[in-house]
Design goal:
Helix content is about 20%, strand content about 30%. The chain is an alpha+beta fold and about 900 residues long. The strands form ten sheets. Strands 21, 22, 25, 26, 27, 28, 31, 32, 33 and 34 form a ten-stranded mixed sheet that branches. The longest helix is centred in the last third of the chain and has 22 residues. The chain is globular. The two termini are about 40 Å apart. Bound molecules: beta-D-glucopyranose (BGC). Beta-D-glucopyranose binds next to helix 3.
Length: about 900
């Protein structure tokens, strides 16, 4: 059988090293090019050793043959033990009962499964030098500490079979073994509500271990600052050595460690960092180093630890500057031609003690000098003091910047373009989507969105990467989530974020606009708080993660109940603060009442929660919340539906302009009474076309739903026109004005304030490209069914997209010529798709791989075929249902 079982995931990760889950989700993807292939059964084996799994012996768990089409199961064998590796593999049977061979072997390791498995102690440096850096949301300066260095030596007793390091260092740490940095993660651990849970990482350090060893750690501030409610930077590390003879030994952080200050001094997310090369301590992390002047550490309190089961932050790309110029004597500016997140690495040589200063900005003034207003109070300056020992290089480690330009001053020589390289730094989520079409502007918008999206993934979804914020604003997160899911594997990233939302929840059920709640903004605007429900729902819808729904069920219910308690007559008039934030011309919504947006999200959350209850089989709740959602809908219409359309604030008798967002939101959920739907749609279209010259007039909320509403209601041409506008307000306008990411505001604003050049909340338009231009969208949860419906709009000649989903990869590519329309489709095993072929001409032939399916209106006899089924045939489309496999259609004009 031509079936290849691959892409094996354990709770959405490949070979994770410290699973905390005692019922991990084991999943696989089956690849085949055969048509209408299905899985009818599977068998999973879990073994305690490589040898046993190779002998097909599931001594830990053997599911035996299970009749099921699901490409995953939840482990339910004997209880898993801490710090152990488990091997697993799977085979499947197809729809005819034919058996595949075994998959490759995958594994997962358990970490500390109970609190008592942590034997190490939290430690901190006794005396830490402090400094102050600018902060946000207060005029106060934030107290920071100089970086602290820790070390400890140990010898091994026997031959080492395997070694693991379990570590958390707050705010940020770097781990070294015998002088070498371990792993390529940066800015670890991920940000969290440190007082409740700190994230820990695991490294396989077997290859680092020698007979005599030294383990070293550098600690920086990160977000772990007093002003956010935390104390000094601290560290916990537990090294587990497993000897060949089966014995185990732990090396633990405790009173026996030494600490010191070192070359890395000031450091902060907004601040930048200062590294004094003249203070380097050669060999500080080697066994024979004389550490007699290092001080004893202090044992301190710490919080619970949670495995950071999501892609770490890494340097993912190296950027060469496009140009450089001399601003004035000794001051040089480099332009990377791209706004991005990270830092630069600089290669220099010069006299000892020379101080190099690197300043960052998104923009420059006309004279070429940095225009750093958009950073607000973030200093974003790195300082490097040369050792003076020939060629040296420097890059920061406990800060990051959002920038396009770097200014270098203090250089002892005239630097060249080759002295600097940019480092793109973000959570290293896998890219799963690809989109390309014949419209260059759309390709450019898509590209800007990808840069903007990645720039704003820093272990949490952030609003921006440059100014003195970079917080997990939940509105920004939820509005861009579907776009992010089309482009990247967000399964673990968002699962981690939901845990943070849960930790931020107060007793009364309320959550904060910003999560982790470093600044406490309770209760959240409903358009921000909805992130909890909406993102959880996406995790189910796109990744079939029902566990996340059950893990968060009670807390989500508490949140929905909080909304309910805050409502009056089913309307939510109280909690709104931001609403349809940042429409053209303003920050706060002008035309869309905030209570309108709040109540609509109240409906959204209650409605989605009823669906969540249904998925989990909680029928009573499902019924109850569904009824509540129906009541909200009714009250919403009674209150907000006026004779001129849905409520819009108008500014006087001559102002007849309604809010686009107010019409879009109820249309999105089909909340509009049937007899009013045409009227509301007409109002919306009329406003867009007649009053706004085919431009949007929406803030971040309206923009998110606009393209779905127009495209689903037969107005994809208008969607396309809006998306490809080059005059204000539009993405094309941003690009014309030099944007290489997506702005926070529709306006070109460069003074200090709310005008980041790299926000992601308006990036939601990207789903229009995938879902409608290329035409791939999800029809049944977990991609059990897809819809392939290219919308042939404007002058578009071709579009193509692919998406790697939890079930396999979907591909679509179409091309429209004068007399010929070509469509290629790939559908993975175990799923189906309805494919819409537009009837472009009155007289046509439709062929698939040269076989005639339609001759004009005459249906050729393909009824017997199992691979292609005619589902519907109407004025506009021929709708075919396909199973797995590759298909190639040609619609030819006669
Ligand atoms: C952030 C936004 C955020 C907003 C709340 C801003 O400062 O940058 O993106 O959602 O505040 O209204």
């Amino acid at each position: 059988m031509k079936i290849d079982v691959r892409n094996m995931y354990t709770t959405y990760a490949i070979n994770p090293l410290a699973l905390k889950d005692t019922r991990p989700r084991l999943s696989w993807v089956v690849e085949t090019s055969e048509r209408r292939k299905k899985q009818s059964a599977y068998r999973v084996l879990v073994s305690s050793s490589q040898q046993l799994i190779e002998q097909d012996e599931g001594n830990i768990w053997d599911t035996h043959k299970i009749e099921s089409e699901d490409n995953y199961c939840y482990y339910s064998g004997e209880e898993l033990e801490s710090f152990k590796r488990y091997y697993w593999k799977v085979k499947i049977w197809d729809e005819k009962g034919e058996e595949s061979s075994w998959s490759k072997v995958s594994f997962f390791e358990t970490g500390p499964l109970s609190k008592s498995d942590w034997k190490a102690k939290w430690i901190t440096k006794r005396d830490l030098k402090t400094f102050y850096s600018a902060g946000d949301f207060s005029t106060e300066k934030f107290k920071h500490y100089h970086a602290a260095y820790f070390r400890k030596t140990f010898e091994i007793k026997n031959e080492v079979q395997s070694a693991r390091a379990y570590i958390s260092g707050l705010g940020f740490y770097e781990l070294y073994l015998n002088g070498e940095k371990v792993g390529n993660n940066v800015l670890d651990p991920g940000q969290s509500e440190y007082s409740k849970e700190a994230l820990f990482n695991v490294y396989n350090i077997t290859s680092f271990i020698t007979e005599q060893n030294c383990v070293g750690v550098i600690l920086g501030n990160g977000r772990h600052l007093e002003q956010f409610g935390y104390s000094k930077p601290k560290l916990i590390i537990q090294i587990l050595l497993e000897y060949v003879n089966g014995e185990k030994e732990y090396i633990l952080s405790d009173e026996s460690w030494g600490s010191s200050h070192g070359p890395l001094q000031e450091n902060g997310i907004y601040y930048g960092e200062k590294y004094d090369g003249t203070l380097e301590i050669p060999g500080w992390c080697t066994y024979h180093f004389d550490a007699s002047n290092w001080e004893e550490v202090e044992v301190t309190e710490g919080s619970n630890l949670r495995y950071q089961n999501m892609p770490p932050i890494r340097v993912t790309k190296i950027l060469k500057p496009l140009k450089m110029y001399t601003l004035k004597p000794g001051v040089f500016v480099y332009d990377f031609g791209q706004n991005f997140t990270g830092w630069v690495k600089i290669n220099v040589s010069g006299p000892k003690g020379t101080q190099l200063k690197l300043r960052h900005s998104e923009l420059v003034n006309e004279d070429g000098s940095l225009k750093n207003n958009t950073l607000r109070k973030a200093e974003a300056t790195d300082i490097y003091i040369l050792k003076g020992e020939g060629k040296e290089s420097y890059e920061p480690r406990f800060t990051y910047h959002g920038f396009r330009y770097v200014e270098v001053s203090g250089s002892p020589f005239v630097p060249t373009i080759d002295n600097i390289e940019g480092r793109f730094v973000h959570s290293d989520v896998e890219k799963v989507g690809d989109f390309y079409c014949s419209n260059e502007l759309i390709n450019k918008i898509h590209k800007n969105i990808l840069w903007g999206q990645l720039s704003n993934l820093h272990s949490i979804p952030t609003d921006c990467p440059q100014r003195d914020e970079r917080f997990g604003w939940m509105g920004d997160a939820q509005l861009s989530a579907e776009e992010a899911i089309y482009n990247f594997d967000m399964s673990l990233f968002y699962e981690n974020y939901l845990q943070e939302i849960k930790l931020s929840q107060k007793e009364d059920g309320s959550i904060s606009d910003v999560v982790p709640a470093y600044i406490k903004l309770y209760p959240a605007d409903p358009a921000w708080g909805t992130a909890y429900i909406t993102i959880a729902w996406y995790l189910y819808k796109y990744y079939k993660n029902e566990k996340v729904l059950s893990d968060h069920y009670e807390s989500m219910k508490k949140y929905v109940e909080f909304l309910h308690k805050s409502s009056e007559n089913n309307l939510l008039k109280k909690l709104g603060k931001f609403g349809d934030w940042c429409p053209p011309g303003a920050i706060s919504p002008k035309k869309t009442p905030v209570e309108f947006t709040s109540t609509w999200y109240y409906y959204n959350d209650v409605y989605l929660f009823s669906k969540i209850a249904e998925v989990l089989g909680k029928e009573k709740d499902a019924q109850h919340y569904f009824e509540l959602s129906e009541n909200i809908k009714k009250s919403f219409n009674d209150y907000f539906l006026k004779d001129y359309g849905y409520e819009s604030r108008m500014f006087g008798p001559v102002d007849r302009l309604i809010s686009q967002t107010s019409q879009i939101l109820p249309l999105y959920y089909n909340m509009v009474p049937n007899d009013k739907k045409e009227f509301i749609l007409e109002k919306l279209i009329n406003n867009i076309v007649e009053h706004q010259d085919s431009h949007l007039d929406t803030g971040i909320v309206g923009t998110r739903y606009l393209f779905d509403v127009l495209s689903e209601n037969g107005y994809s041409d208008l969607s396309f026109r809006i998306a490809t506008q080059e005059s204000y307000p539009s993405w094309g306008y941003m690009i014309k004005e030099g944007a290489t990411t997506v702005w926070e505001r529709w306006e070109k604003l460069e003074a200090g304030g709310m005008n980041s050049q790299n926000h992601i909340m308006l990036g939601s338009v990207d789903t229009f490209f995938y879902k409608y231009l290329a035409g791939i969208s999800l029809e049944k949860d977990g991609w059990k069914k897809a819809r392939i419906k290219p919308h042939l709009v404007g002058e578009e000649k071709f579009a193509s997209a692919k998406i790697k989903t939890i079930i396999g990869e979907f591909q679509v590519s179409w091309e429209k010529g004068e007399n010929l329309f070509k469509l290629s489709v790939v559908i993975p095993l175990g799923t189906e798709a309805d494919v819409f072929i537009p009837k472009l001409w009155n007289e046509f032939n439709l062929k698939e791989e040269r076989e005639l399916l339609f001759d004009n209106e005459q249906i050729k006899d393909f009824k017997e075929r199992n691979d292609i089924k005619l589902k519907e045939y109407n004025e506009e489309n021929i709708i075919l249902n396909l199973g797995s496999g590759q298909y190639y259609f040609e619609l030819e004009k006669k």
